Amino acid sequence: MNKTLDEKISGLLGSFIVTIFVLGLAESISSGAAGFWGGLPFWVICISVLPLVYYDFWDSCIRKK
């Protein structure tokens, strides 16, 4: 495989793993002792940071430079 395909696969896999981890953490905070309102600030942070992760993936691996 060539280098660009390796970068795309590893970047997508890494972004996907980060997404699963962060959303799982947010769900466990919200369903635990903090409750929905206690976990809401973390959800807001997650929803605002995950698009940045995927933008960085697009910027570094997909976009033509």
The proportion of residues forming helix, as a percent range, comes to over 70%
The N- to C-terminal Cα distance equals 21 Å
Regions with little confidence, pLDDT below 50 for 5+ residues: none
Query: What is the radius of gyration?
Result: 15 Å
Order of helices and strands: HH
Describe the structure in your own words.
The chain is built from two helices and no strands. The chain has 65 residues and is mostly helical. The chain has a domain of 45 residues. The model has no long low-confidence stretch (mean pLDDT 92).
Helices, strands, pairings?
Layout: H1 3-31, H2 35-62
Helix pairs in contact: 1-2
Keywords:
elongated, 65 residues, mainly alpha
Short précis:
It is built from 2 helices and no strands.
